[in-house]
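Q: What residues go here?
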């Protein structure tokens, strides 16, 4: 229980993993031993475990710098203690700064010297293109006249931010050839795209010149003054502060039920409460949003205003930083733990409703295949007079159309739809409910839990499945005898009675429990393998995941389905009668052999696979479309990075690792590496010498340097 007066949410920590799990993962990758202690090399940690820096042509300086992140003792041996320490660092509240500090602390002394600072800065892309003056007052003030000061972690955090500004100012001074405090618009664009690219959104990068024309009041055309230069950079660094100003105005306007669209005057008034925000910065901000609104409208926009969604477009990659992801994970974990009973009931009811719709869509799509499957399974080795024999499923399909018409393929569909809605709904709802309860704190779920969730879902559906199946089957086989009148569904129900509707229930359990225990885990894993590099599943991948998962589930459960069909079909004169599950198995085997248990297997797989493909596709798309938040776990694979909003580089930096060996904080490794450049602008060359296989000698971002899958060229 949280202390009195304290928000319990604030005490919620990032879901951690236990030491035994970390040790098990470490032992799988630690192939060496020294003095009885297992270890892996920094290269093995980066390349084999994290999957970064693949190849033999890696720049040795880069490898050395990045290896020092985890090799605290600097002996090229990563032990379990260092491995665990790095995992803890990744979930620390100040992980970005601590990771950057370890980059500079090359000797593991717990402090940084001038030589350390110079070594790392000199290895960056920015230094190679815009050399930093290490004889400047900046260096003397921070490291002393003789450069002998040792910088602690807390001091380093401030120096790093000051360095970003100092490097940019030095570049401005070098490009100010006239010493009048101006640089050209072209040079301004170069500085932004080379030194501050990590702070530029795709929209601002594309429209820099238009934005400058709207906001700059310089008397010289195409010239950028130093005050405008610094205001622009400060705006890029403080987009989140601007967002807070917007929220503050909205909170005041909410009391009067005013529009959430904020005018420039309203924004300026509130900005006075934020001391580091200037009217010039706000001029630039509204020039950006004005350009954005003009692009959307396709014409000139006279009124200057800003909306909340504008910040998502003009901010760079703040949403990709690890503390944002960590906060999202903590928030989701907290909401799941504290989801109320009422919300759980509402969520289950909501899923039940969507499952009903999805089940009806899936059943209708494949019903003709289901009818063919049923008739093939009911066909005996000896026929009676008037019963049509089918050579195979295709022959059955043709004869149904020839003798009963196209609508004959949909005989029994109405009771099927009446029953399939609650049947599929309860199956999907129970599976989701049990999976949510058995999912671990880090968002993973053990295989045994997936199988249990599927099995319970299969068992729960029999309440609806059995009455549905027996009525449907008797209607489907009614057309096999031409001389017999075809009964209505109501007549079949009256004839069977309540007890008769559950005839063959044990066989139904025997089929549905293993089917769902196989299907749902298979679907979850195939779906994950089909997800893109962001972990997102598009509709095509959802359909094929459901389709492929249905093949083994339907095929392996065919014998139970054959027995269930024989028990539920009303035996005609001359046909064998069965007295229960065991008796049916024995008689079918004695009279028809093992092959009889696999009758209709092809049709069953052909029906069940696409049916569940359509059903799960519909179910997931409905959840995404309505997107109702019941404070529970989000649907896996549903989070999508809008390709129109973010650049290919942003889309390539997806963040939470899906590797099952990346336990605990290692889920955030990619986000943290990306954050070093996003927040501090540190990027290093990847290869020693560009080869013919390399598309460009330009230096990649740190995420790309580390080998994260990307859609843009290095």
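A:
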């Amino acid at each position: 229980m949280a202390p009195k007066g304290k928000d319990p949410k604030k005490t919620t920590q990032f879901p951690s993993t236990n030491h035994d799990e970390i040790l098990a993962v470490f032992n799988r990758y630690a192939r060496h031993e020294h003095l009885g202690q297992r270890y892996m090399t920094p290269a093995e940690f980066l390349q084999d475990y994290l999957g970064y820096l693949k190849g033999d042509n890696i720049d040795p300086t880069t490898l050395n710098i990045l290896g020092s992140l985890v090799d605290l003792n600097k002996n090229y041996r990563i032990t379990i203690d260092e491995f665990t320490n790095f995992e803890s660092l990744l979930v620390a509240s100040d992980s970005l700064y601590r990771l950057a500090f370890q980059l500079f602390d090359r000797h593991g002394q717990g402090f940084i010297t001038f030589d350390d600072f110079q070594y790392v800065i000199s290895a960056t892309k920015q230094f190679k293109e815009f050399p930093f003056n290490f004889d400047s007052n900046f260096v003397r003030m921070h490291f002393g006249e003789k450069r002998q000061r040792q910088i602690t972690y807390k001091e380093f955090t401030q120096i790093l931010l000051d360095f970003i500004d100092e490097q940019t100012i030095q570049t401005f001074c070098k490009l100010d050839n006239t010493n009048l405090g101006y640089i050209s618009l072209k040079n301004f664009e170069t500085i932004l795209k080379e030194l501050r690219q990590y702070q530029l959104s795709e929209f601002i990068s594309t429209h820099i010149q238009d934005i400058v024309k709207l906001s700059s009041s310089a008397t010289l055309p195409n010239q950028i003054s130093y005050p405008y230069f610094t205001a622009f950079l400060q705006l890029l660094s403080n987009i989140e502060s601007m967002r807070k100003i917007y929220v503050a105005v909205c909170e005041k306007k909410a009391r009067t039920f005013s529009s959430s669209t904020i005018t420039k005057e309203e924004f300026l008034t509130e900005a006075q409460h934020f001391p580091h925000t200037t009217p010039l910065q706000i001029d630039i901000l509204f020039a950006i949003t004005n350009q954005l609104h003009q692009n959307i409208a396709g014409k000139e926009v006279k009124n200057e205003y800003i909306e909340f969604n504008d910040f998502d477009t003009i901010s760079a990659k703040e949403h990709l930083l690890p503390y944002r992801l960590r906060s999202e994970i903590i928030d989701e974990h907290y909401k799941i733990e504290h989801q109320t009973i009422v919300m759980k009931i509402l969520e289950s009811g909501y899923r039940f409703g969507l499952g009903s719709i999805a089940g009806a869509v899936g059943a209708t799509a494949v019903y003709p295949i289901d009818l063919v499957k049923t008739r093939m399974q009911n066909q005996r080795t000896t026929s009676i007079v008037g019963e049509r024999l089918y050579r195979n499923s295709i022959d059955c399909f043709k004869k149904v159309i020839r003798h009963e018409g196209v609508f004959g393929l949909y005989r029994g569909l109405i009771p099927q739809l009446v029953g399939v809605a609650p049947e599929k709904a309860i199956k999907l709802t129970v599976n989701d409910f049990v999976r949510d309860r058995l999912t671990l704190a880090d968002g993973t779920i053990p295989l045994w839990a997936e199988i249990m969730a599927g099995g319970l879902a299969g068992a729960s559906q029999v309440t609806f499945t059995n009455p549905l199946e027996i009525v449907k089957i008797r209607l489907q086989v009614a057309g096999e005898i031409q001389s017999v009148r075809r009964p209505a569904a109501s007549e079949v129900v009256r004839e069977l009675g309540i007890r008769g509707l559950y005839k063959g229930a044990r066989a139904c359990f025997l089929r549905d429990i293993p089917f769902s225990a196989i299907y749902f885990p298979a679907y979850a894993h195939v779906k994950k393998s089909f997800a893109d590099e962001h972990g997102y599943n598009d509709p095509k991948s959802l359909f094929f995941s459901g389709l492929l998962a249905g093949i083994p589930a339907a095929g392996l459960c065919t014998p139970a389905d054959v027995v269930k069909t024989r028990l539920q079909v009303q035996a005609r004169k001359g046909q064998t009668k069965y007295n229960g599950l065991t008796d049916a198995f024995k008689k079918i085997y004695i009279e028809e052999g093992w092959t009889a248990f696999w009758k209709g297997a092809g049709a069953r797989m052909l029906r069940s696979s696409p049916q569940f493909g359509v059903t799960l596709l519909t179910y997931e798309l409905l959840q995404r479309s309505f997107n109702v938040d019941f404070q529970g776990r989000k649907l896996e694979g549903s989070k999508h990075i809008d390709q129109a909003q973010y650049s290919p580089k942003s889309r390539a930096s997806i963040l939470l690792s899906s590797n099952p060996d990346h336990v605990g904080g290692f889920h955030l490794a990619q986000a943290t590496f990306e954050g070093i450049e996003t927040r501090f602008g540190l990027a290093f060359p990847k290869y020693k010498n560009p080869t013919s296989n390399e598309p460009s000698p330009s230096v990649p971002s740190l995420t790309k340097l580390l080998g994260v899958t990307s859609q843009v060229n290095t």
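A: Context that may help when evaluating the design: The CA atoms of residues 455 and 563 lie 20 Å apart. Residues 1-12, 640-655, 690-714 have pLDDT under 50 and may be disordered.
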